[in-house]
Amino acid sequence: MISLKSMREIELMRQAGMVLSKTRLELEKHLKPGISTHQLDLIAENYIKSQGCKASFKNYNGFPASICASVNEVVIHGIPKKSIVLKDGDIISIDLGVECNGYHADSAWTYPIGKVSSEVLQLLKVTKEALDEGLKMVKPGNRV
User: Fold this and answer.
1) Residue 62 has what DSSP assignment?
2) What is the pLDDT of residues 59-114, one digit of tens each?
3) Quick check: is 59 in a domain?
4) What is the CATH number of the domain that holds 98?
5) CB 93 within 8 Å of CB 76
6) Range of the domain at 24
7) Which of 46, 54, 57, 103 is 20–30 Å from 27 (CA)?
8) Distance CA 125, CA 122 (A)
9) How many structural domains does the chain have?
10) What is the pTM of this model?
11) Does residue 135 fall inside a structural domain?
12) Is residue 130 in some structural domain?
């Protein structure tokens, strides 16, 4: 059952989404060869805390980190580690959740690291196009 949200609730949801968006932008500054997924996790957690919010995933059902960091063949929910260091040609998917004032925002994006192959660039392009096409269908009355 879907419960309608008040304007206040919608604004709180929007605030969580803005913190999530700004956290993503902060992480993007650091997505370079040589950084560990653990360092990315700390960057995200510290930024989220600086905004007065919490990382949604941290300690949820025992999950030990603030982000999920899935490198290359890791499909989803990769656990950040000091030993996982990004290198030229990698791709990383970062799943990020933010909780502000009881409302959560969540997103996942995949990024190329350094110089990647043409096949990887094509994969990223096609998946972005598929997302954009799907978003065109998001409107009142449409169903999944």
Assistant:
1) G
2) 999 999 999 999 999 989 999 999 999 999 999 999 999 999 999 999 999 999 99
3) yes
4) 3.90.230.10
5) yes
6) 7-115
7) 103
8) 5
9) 1
10) 0.91
11) no
12) no
